[in-house]
Amino acid sequence: MGSTEPRPTNTRRTPGRLLFLFAFHAALSGAFIVAYLTGDEDTYAMHQFAGYTALAALAVRLLAGVLMPVGPLRLPRPSQAATLDWLRRVASGDARAWGQRSPLLAWMALALLAVVGAAALSGAVADVFVPMEKLHEALGEFSLPVVLAHVALVVALLGLKKVAGWRARSNIRHEVIAP
Ligand code: HEM
Ligand code: HEM
Description:
Blueprint: H1 15-37, H2 44-67, H3 80-91, H4 95-99, H5 104-128, H6 133-177
The structure holds protoporphyrin IX containing FE (HEM) (2 copies).
């Protein structure tokens, strides 16, 4: 497609779609943190409320992704080839790869949706089918390192982007100073 042609409307990052993603992220992360901290018997009512809120947020996100399979709301579709290529370019010091959107984000989003989704869904099952509790507790515990790895990756990619920006600016300065 030529660069002067307008993008199809369903692929656009409209304010409404970005707001939806922002609201989804806020609801899920808030509910996740509360659910994780209240898994104990004494705080069960709060755990139940936060857990079902997380489950509802994930269900709405899944529905939006199914209804809008292109554009910012589409569900993550990681590509192994793109990821390997990006990692190779990052390792060889290609500053453009450092600054561009990383294909690792799609793997990260998929892992988060799957693991947090499994934790929330198994909790709902355990609510009516007690033998499921052990599996739910294991999935709940496992979801924390996945979420922490998510935050670490977001921060690391932001750092990489910043370094790429500094390098680009200092290269321009050298070109301007050099005769
Ligand atoms: C300091 C805390 C956090 C920060 C800075 C953060 C930041 C981000 C950012 C920047 C993205 C978008 C990545 C992209 O461009 O594709 C993202 C996606 C995501 N985050 Fe977080 N996050 C945080 C905490 C959490 C928590 C606690 C959860 C709980 C489960 C969470 C779940 C997700 C999910 C599921 C996605 C994928 C969204 C989607 O594709 O629909 N995040 N996060
Ligand atoms: C993302 C959502 C959720 C997370 C991260 C999560 C996490 C946890 C964790 C870590 C535990 C173990 C706590 C401990 O060992 O002290 C636990 C226990 C439990 N959770 Fe969840 N949970 C979630 C959603 C739900 C939902 C939706 C329900 C449905 C009501 C639920 C029901 C339970 C039950 C019945 C237990 C056992 C409580 C007990 O020991 O008596 N969870 N959860």
